[in-house]
């Protein structure tokens, strides 16, 4: 419950679902149409062509009426058989959940994790860093029998705010001359952080609607490669709803084998117009700049950023570690009650130790400054001694770092 009567807009600053632009909400309010009629085919063909440009692929993209978890399952069941060995990397909570799913599906999982130490989070040092591609390469080189069938990794780890280098993982697989498929979760990276499905040689990219695409939750994606499609012909894990063959076949004309999520596809069509109209590189620069502004505030507070390696800071969200003894969830609750703002909770091993600020979706410099102000007031009210004002620092940052020329049209 809120301490105040809610007025104005709720600040939804979790790293997905992200705030949905009014333009998209309006587009989704159109009447639902016959999903087998001619008008639908036009919509279907448009969103299928457009989403390929977002993944930067020339190959098919399957769109599911499901949350991201469904698309995770689709990626595994379409490419693998019972007992297949898969290599994963523990970057955080979502990598761990995907491993749990792989185990439940009857795959044999092996998880690599960062082996160094960490002063702030000794129990989870790997949850502050990205994928160590050299460890993947070393493990694949040992696998001379090619027992490992897939390498499954998370691009933007939403639980920590770390964006791993996927091109480096591709290079590691190639350097080891290993035939494993590369399967990547970019559920929260796509359309906010640079992503190149084809150029990085990704076999399956999994994504979802409620993050960088600025849509409500409810549709999710598998971008495919020719090798992934080939693997799907012999993959033995049971699947029906998720099976690519019928979807890819019917998608050629803009239709689906079952009832698609029509109104979310209207939203997707609008989102594609917005993102492709702005230009993806501009979209990425915009998020990188917002992230830098938010990090400047966290640094001014004197609090550690969850991501310990500046090379892999996420443009999508920033994790803030609270001082020892300060329950980050109590801070979040207070901020929600007093200022009607939602922040991301610490997930799994990070419970109570940190909170997450989302800087994606329908945002701008001023909404982010208000977000930082809400955090700063909440931290102070929670008794956290801050070194300096993050709001002031972020104002300085946003006013002295004008949006790049490409952003001004
Ligand atoms: N993977 C990542 C990186 C995520 O951020 C999420 C959701 O936040 C998921 C998987 C699961 O997706 P969903 O909650 O849409 O099923």
From TrEMBL:
Coiled coil: none annotated. GO terms for biological process: glycine biosynthetic process, by transamination of glyoxylate. Substrate binds at residue 356. InterPro entries: Aminotrans_V_dom (IPR000192), PyrdxlP-dep_Trfase (IPR015424), PyrdxlP-dep_Trfase_major (IPR015421), PyrdxlP-dep_Trfase_small (IPR015422), SP_NH2Trfase/AEP_transaminase (IPR024169). Its cofactor is pyridoxal 5'-phosphate. It comes from the Bacteria. It holds the Pfam family Aminotran_5. GO terms for molecular function: alanine-glyoxylate transaminase activity; L-serine-pyruvate transaminase activity. The modification N6-(pyridoxal phosphate)lysine is found at residue 211. Residues 50-292 form the Aminotransferase class V domain. Keywords: Aminotransferase, Pyridoxal phosphate, Transferase. Belongs to the class-V pyridoxal-phosphate-dependent aminotransferase family. PANTHER family: ALANINE--GLYOXYLATE AMINOTRANSFERASE, AMINOTRANSFERASE CLASS V. This is Aminotransferase class V-fold PLP-dependent enzyme. It comes from Scleromatobacter humisilvae.
């Amino acid at each position: 419950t809120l301490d105040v009567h809610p007025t104005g807009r709720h600040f939804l600053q979790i790293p997905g679902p992200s705030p949905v632009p009014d333009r998209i909400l309006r587009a989704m309010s159109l009447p639902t149409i016959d999903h087998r009629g001619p008008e639908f085919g036009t919509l279907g063909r448009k969103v299928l062509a457009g989403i390929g440009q977002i993944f930067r692929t020339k190959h098919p993209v399957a769109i599911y009426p499901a949350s991201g978890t469904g698309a995770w399952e689709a990626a595994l069941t379409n490419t693998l058989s019972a007992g297949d060995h898969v290599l994963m990397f523990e970057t955080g909570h979502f990598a761990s959940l995907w491993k749990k799913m792989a185990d439940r599906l009857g795959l044999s999982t092996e998880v690599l994790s960062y082996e160094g130490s960490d002063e702030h989070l000794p129990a989870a040092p790997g949850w502050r860093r990205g994928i160590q591609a050299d460890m993947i390469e070393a493990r694949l080189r040992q696998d001379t029998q090619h027992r490992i069938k897939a390498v499954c990794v998370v691009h933007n780890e939403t639980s920590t705010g770390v964006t791993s280098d996927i091109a480096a993982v591709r290079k590691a697989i190639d350097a080891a001359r290993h035939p494993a498929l590369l399967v990547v979760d970019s559920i929260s990276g796509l359309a906010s952080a640079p992503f190149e499905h084809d150029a990085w040689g990704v076999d399956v990219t999994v994504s979802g609607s409620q993050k960088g695409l600025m849509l409500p939750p409810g549709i999710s994606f598998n971008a495919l490669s020719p090798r992934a499609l080939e693997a799907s012909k012999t993959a033995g894990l049971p699947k029906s709803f998720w099976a690519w063959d019928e979807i890819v076949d019917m998608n050629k004309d803009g239709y689906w084998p079952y009832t698609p999520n029509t109104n979310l596809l209207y939203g997707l069509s609008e989102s594609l117009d917005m993102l492709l109209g702005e230009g993806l590189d501009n979209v990425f620069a915009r998020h990188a700049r917002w992230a830098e502004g938010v990090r400047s505030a966290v640094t001014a507070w004197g609090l550690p950023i969850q991501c310990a390696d500046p090379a892999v800071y996420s443009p999508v969200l920033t994790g803030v570690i609270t001082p020892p003894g300060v329950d980050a969830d109590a801070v979040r609750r207070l901020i929600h009650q007093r200022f009607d703002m939602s922040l991301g909770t610490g997930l799994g091993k990070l419970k109570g130790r940190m909170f997450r600020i989302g800087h994606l979706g329908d945002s701008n410099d001023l909404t982010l400054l208000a977000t930082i102000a809400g955090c700063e007031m909440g931290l102070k009210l929670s008794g956290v001694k801050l070194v300096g004002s993050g709001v002031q620092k972020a104002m300085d940052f946003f006013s002295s770092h004008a949006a790049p020329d490409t952003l001004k049209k």
